[in-house]
Amino acid sequence: MNKILKFWKSILWAIIIAFLLLMPGDKLPKDNLLNIPYFDKVVHFLLFLLLEVLLLIDLKASGRYYNNRILKFTGLTIGYALLTEWLQYLLTVSRHGDWYDFIADIAGIAVGWTIFLIYFKIIVQISSRS
Fold first, then answer.
1. Number of domains the chain is built from
2. Whole-model pTM over 0.70
3. In which residue ranges of the chain is pLDDT below 50?
4. Which residues constitute the domain of residue 118?
């Protein structure tokens, strides 16, 4: 249980993502922002970018940070993205699973993974100089 608590930020964000993606379409805000073409893809991209970064930060903080674990956790995030699209397809009436949303999720995960690796590589280099 203690190991799971170390991942509380990423677990909480995953729950928020599920809530947002499975929310009925008529409950979504009716802002002009939503009328921007492909805005929903940007939202998917950002949701999963943040999830990937939080998950890898939690992994690093847990002391179980290894290269093969990074790949496993990234695979977990990709699986979660696929699961959320599948659940949208199965469980919602006014929303639907979309392969393009899944591609946006994957792009967000890839960018989040890259940001995390570049950030920590820079931090390690700065730390080793001190």
1. 1
2. yes
3. none
4. 2-129
